[in-house]
Q: What sequence folds into this?
């Protein structure tokens, strides 16, 4: 069983839509959760991070963690064409030596 | 302030050859991690180096090795290249505070093609 599962999509939405991206994980010890955005042929860029269950908001982005279900989500409000990218969830122990990544969800926002 | 720099950006090698990839972390970051990203997949952990010592190794064969220099830059070496080593190799720089890693800043990667 993979440490992290993520639906690869692809996901295609019209501009202005609300986007929901999700990951599940198997290791209940994971305590640190991140979302990265990766444009084509570039390295991943850290979007958001959170430690605990609940919601964290940053502009149009909201990260949600449900540790009891081992499920995390990223919501994008008022999606823009510039949001078109691959979104990677990542997680692990904050004192660990590595983070575990999902396979990434490819998102296209159509103008 | 420079971000994470990796070189070269692209590389084509023949099966059986050796390759060296280089990374300079963000100034002040003492931890460098290497990840392999195969097309359509998420990054897979190869190594972490912190304060010039190996602190973690992923499930990769001994053909993969790395080191970190006194200035915290790092090299990833891969021997006896296989076609399956074709991937984007990402270097990640981290600020470790009190043993805690608050996330990575990635470079743009080195795209390695083995033919």
A:
């Amino acid at each position: 069983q993979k440490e992290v599962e993520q639906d690869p999509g692809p996901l295609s939405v019209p501009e202005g839509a609300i986007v929901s991206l999700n990951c599940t994980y198997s290791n209940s010890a994971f305590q640190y959760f991140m979302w990265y955005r990766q444009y084509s042929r570039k390295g991943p860029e850290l979007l958001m991070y959170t430690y605990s269950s609940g919601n964290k908001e940053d502009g149009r982005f909201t990260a949600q963690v449900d540790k009891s279900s081992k499920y995390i989500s990223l919501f994008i409000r008022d999606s823009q064409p510039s949001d078109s990218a691959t979104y990677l969830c990542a997680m692990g122990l904050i004192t660990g030596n590595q983070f575990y990544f999902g396979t990434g969800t490819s998102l296209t926002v159509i103008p | 302030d420079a971000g994470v720099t990796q070189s070269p950006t692209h590389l084509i090698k023949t099966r059986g050859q050796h390759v060296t990839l280089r990374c300079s972390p963000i100034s002040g970051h003492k931890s460098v991690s290497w990840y392999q990203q195969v097309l359509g997949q998420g990054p897979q952990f190869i190594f972490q180096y912190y304060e010039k010592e190996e602190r973690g190794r992923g499930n990769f064969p001994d053909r993969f090795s790395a080191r970190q220099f006194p200035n915290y830059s790092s090299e990833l070496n891969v021997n006896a290249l296989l076609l399956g080593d074709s991937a984007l190799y990402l270097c990640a720089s981290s600020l470790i505070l009190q043993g805690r890693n608050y996330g990575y800043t990635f470079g743009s990667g080195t795209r390695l093609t083995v033919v």
